[in-house]
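Possible regression after last week's pipeline update?

I re-ran a chain I had predicted before the update to compare outputs. Posting the input and the new output here so someone can diff against the archived version. Not blocking, just want to make sure nothing changed silently.
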Amino acid sequence: MLKFIKHHMESIAGIEIYPIISLLIFFSFFVVLFWWVITSKKDYIEKVSNIPFESTNSNNSEL
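New output (post-update):
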């Protein structure tokens, strides 16, 4: 099965660029995410991390 797919992919012209593009997108996403985490303010992180513990949600009052 893999030989059939590999042979079929080799017959497509210009397909070798797609793995490179996907690797660049994947790498750049995580670099931007890492940069955002490093540069984010501690106040914002604390505020967002306490959201699940807030009891202002109407669903929590029904329980």
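Follow-up from reviewer: compared with the archived run. The chain is about 70% helix and 0% strand. Marking as no regression found.
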